[in-house]
C-alpha cells in the first residue's frame, strides 16, 4: 500500500502532514498562510485560511494536469474560390465547436485562472477515428452535419479540421487561492469545508464534491471539480431548512450537516447525475439534553460530537439508508472527529489536544475498539537547540469575555471578566502548558463553542454553549478589566529590543477556578472570547511539549487493520487517555470462558461421532503421478471446495488436469507448498528465478515463472511447451514484464505498479521453500461484474419478465450462468468485499443516464491481501508497461522503461538500473489522445496504440534521449482497431480487437516504421516478442482431447532471421492463463551440426571434383542435407 498523508492544523494555524510511512509531523511546504479548516483527499487538500478564503493544495506528480482545448475550422467549396472561409448564411461559424452551435475563434480561449499556463501554440490534429489524414488535417463531407472522412470525393462540399491546444495546471505543492466567481452571487466568508464524493457510482478519478458553509449559515457546492480542472468552475448555493454550522461529505453519497440548533441534516438523492442531491432529512441530536456541534461521515459510518464533548456512533448506515437507525455512545471526549478512507477515524481529544486514531476498525466492526494517541514529534523539533524558552518575553492580556445565549436559554447577554495573575515562573509554566487553543485572526469567527467546564475540573457547571451570529457586536474590554500576565521574566532591554507581534489566544482553561459564588455564571466561547498573546520568538511550543491541535483531516489517508504504522513509538509529553477510552478485554479476562467453550465443543464432537462408528469406510481409489513429471500446480479456489490442479505433459495435451480437493484452505496451501518444493528439488531448482526467466499470470492473478532451457528456441527441434516446468511466486498481479538483466515489474488489477525484489516464495509458500527476506505484504483490488437484463414488451415496457428462451435476468457476461447480487461471491475465500454493488457507466459502447446499454452491469470491488517478493512503486496507477529487452551481457547503465497510466498518459521511467530496478521518477511524454498499449524493442524502437485503435511510432528514442522527439502515425490493418503491441529485435506484432495477430513487414534500420501488415493467426488474446524475436502468445479455443481450452500458452516455432514469422504453433500450459512475457529470455539456441552420411560425403567430393570447384557444390550439398521435413504441430488448432 503506498504511503498517504494525514493532515492537521495546530492551534497556531500551521498545517502539518503525517505520512503513513513516516514518524514525524512535517510542516507544510507553503507555510506562509494560517488555516483554520482542512479537508483532504488523496490527490489534494482544500483549506480555509485566515482571510476566510478557500485555498487548494495539489500534490506534485510526474504526470501533469493537462486540459485539451479544441476548436474546428470550417470551410465550404464554391466554384470561384474553391474551399474557403466564405460560408452560407445558414452555415455554422467559421470557427466553432464540434456541434457547430458555439462560436469559438482561436483568440476567444482564456486561461481559467492564474494557476494555469499554455503548453504551446495551436496546432492541427491530423487524425480521424484512428486513421491519419492528409497533410493539413482536413476531413471532408457533403454538408456540415454529415459524417466526415479523410478522403476528398466529388461531392465533398464542406471540409473542417480540428485545432488543439493544451493548458497545464502549474500551482502544485503550494496553496493556490480559488478565484472568486465573476457572475452570480458571491459567497460570504466560509467557516467550514468538506470534500468527498469520488466514489459515487464509479466516478472517474479526480471527480470531487466540495461542500462549504458560510458564516451566515448558508451552504455552497463547488461545481465542475475533476482531474482536468482541480479548481472547479463556480459556487452554487444549496438551500437548507436552517442555518448550518458544519458539514461533512464522505467518499460516496453520504453528506451530513449540523444545524445551529444542534440538530443534524442528511442529504438524500445524491447520485451520479445529481451529485448535489435533492432533499434534506432532519435527524435529532444523539443527546436530548445537548445538541450536536460536529459530524463526520465515511462510506458506511457516521460519527458525531455533542456540545458536552461526548462521541457518538450512528448505526445502520448504508447506501440505501443514509439516515441510519440509532446512536451509540462511545468512550472518550473529543473536540472533533474525522473519518478517512476505509472508514478509519481520527479525533482530537479535549483533554490534551492530541490527535487520536481509532484502532480496531474493520468492515465487520466499524465502530472500532479503542482510541490511541499519535505520539510523534514534529520535524522542527529535531533541529531545536534544547532551549525551553520558546515563549520567552511573552505577555498575555485577557479581555473581558462575552457570550450570546441560545434563544431557548436566554434573550440577554451575560458578561464575564476575570484577571489572570502571575505569581511565579512556576505558575506561568503551568499556565503555558494548559493553553488549549491559540489562534490567529482566522479563529475569531469560530462558530462552534468550546468545551464546557467540568465540575471536577473547575468546580462549576455551565449551560450548553451557544453560537453567535455573524455580525453580532463584540464587547470591548475597558482598561481596568485588562490585566497583564508575565509568563516569563524578561529584562528591560529585551522589552525594548523589538516590537512585539500580537496574536489571539483563548485562555479559557488557563484561567483559575471561579469561586463558588460565581459557579452559575454562563460560560461560552463567542466571537469576543479572545485574549491577546505575544508570540515572542518563532517557536510557540516548549521543547518537552506536544503540539496542540485544532483540526485533523484523514480523507486521503489509507489505513486499515493490516497497515503497520510508526506513529506510537516516539516519546513525547502527551498524557495518554488510552486506558480510559479503551473497550478492549485483556486475554486474562477471556481465558476462563475460552477454556469452557473448548471443553463443550470437544464433548459435542465426541458425542456426535459415536453414532457413526459402525459405518464402513468409503471406497478408496488410487491415482498417481510422478513428481518429476509434474509441470505445474494450480490452485482452484471457490467458496465450497479447496481444489488444486496437477498438470503433466500428457495432461497438458489433453487439457484435463488431475484435480485434488483438500478439507480446508490451509490444508490445500500446505499441500501446494510441499508439492511445489518437492517438484523444485527433483529438478534442481532452488532460490530466486534466473534473470532469463519466463513470467506469466493466470486469470486469477497467480504468478508463475519458468526457467528456460537452452534448447527452448532450438531449430529444428525445440523443447516442447508442454514439458516446461512452472512454479508459483507469491503475489497477485494482472501482468508482468521483464528483461534479461533481472528487472521485473508488474501491474495489479487495481493498476498499482510493483517491482520485483529478488526473493522467491511468499503466498502459500511462506515459511516453506520461501526466502526470508525481500518478501512483503501485497494487496490487490478487482471488480466483479454481474449483469442485469431486461426485455421490452408493449404492456410494461422494459421489465424483468423475459421469454423462456432468454438469459437470466441477473447473469454473468455470457448470460449462461445466473448471478444475483446475493448469490455472487468473491473469487475465493482470500478475497473480501470492499464496496457495495453499483452501476457501471463506463461499459464499452456507452450507456444512458441510468447505466442501461440496451443491456447494465453492476460491479462490486473485492480485495485480497497476500505476500510476495514485490514492492509497490507509487504513486501513479499504470495500465500497461514495457521494459527494454537486451542481452544478459549488456552494458546498459540505465534501462529504458515505458508505461501508460490508467488515464492514458505515456510515461518514461528515469533511473532504472540493475541496482535500482524501481527507478526514481516518471517523465511525461506528451500525446494528443490517451493510449492503452506500449512496447519498446531492440534499438529503442517504441511502438504504442491509442485508445481509438490507432498505432504510433516514437521517433529518435535513444539512451541519450530516452523520451524521443515526436510521434509518427502508422496506419492500422484495414478495418481493424488494435489493442496490444509487442516489439522485439527486428519484429513488431500487434493484436486487434477481434483477436487477430498481425506482423509488420518492411522494417529496416532506415525505415523503422515498416510498410504493411500481414495476418498471422486468429483467436489470439495477447502476444509477447522476445529480444531474439521469439513469439509467444496467449491463445483461445485450443482443442484438447476433452474440450476447447481458453487462455493457453503457445510458442511460435520455426522463427529464424530469414523467416521471422515462423511456421507453426506449439501448445503449452493452459487454459486459464492471462499474460506471458518472453522478453527476459535472451539465450541463443545452440547450433546443431547435423552429421553427414558417408555416401553423401563421397557424392559431394565426386561432384565437386567433376564441377572443378568447391563453392557451388558445397552450398548445394549442405542445403540439401539440412532441409529436414518438419511435422506440423496442429497449425490450425489456434484458429478453431
TrEMBL record:
The keyword Iron does not apply. Belongs to the TECPR1 family. GO terms for biological process: autophagosome maturation. GO terms for cellular component: autophagosome membrane; lysosomal membrane. Residues 385-426, 475-495 have a biased composition (Polar residues). It comes from Acipenser ruthenus (Sterlet sturgeon). Keywords: Repeat. Residues 379-500 are annotated as: Disordered. The keyword Protein biosynthesis does not apply. Pfam families: Hyd_WA, Pex24p, Tectonin. GO terms for molecular function: phosphatidylinositol-3-phosphate binding. This is Tectonin beta-propeller repeat-containing protein 1. Residues 448-461 have a biased composition (Basic and acidic residues). Residues 64-125, 137-170, 779-840 form the Peroxin/Ferlin domain.
